[in-house]
Amino acid sequence: MAVERTLAIIKPDAVGRGLTADIISRIHAAKFQIVAIKSLRLGKKQAEGFYAVHRERPFFGELTAFMSAGKAVVMVLEAENAIAKWRDTMGATDPAKAAHGTIRKELGESIQYNCTHGSDAAETAAAEISYFFSGAELA
Description:
The chain is an alpha+beta fold. The protein is built from seven helices and four strands, in the order βααβααβααβα.
């Protein structure tokens, strides 16, 4: 397996509930290397740009309002097969359907308030990482 990088976000719902340290602890336990990390608050336009792929979906307005409503923590994670590994660590989008032991099953409250985001493919990861981090931050 190849070493990959993926974008991970601890969403505003989790930051607001004080779950950042717990989630980062789970990242370390899963043997990810945190290559870059920052805390930020997305502006509405920044959230709309990040989620532009969903612009035509009925949940777009709610999603971008939620993601710009509070602080988030964005990270670049590195590991073998990092994209699939992070998605497995997070669990299914709907916490009710997520596997036991996953972040979303144990900490998520709903499909919208599910604590974390992760890239779904190598191309997506590259685009998402560059949305938040410059090359110098990834060295």
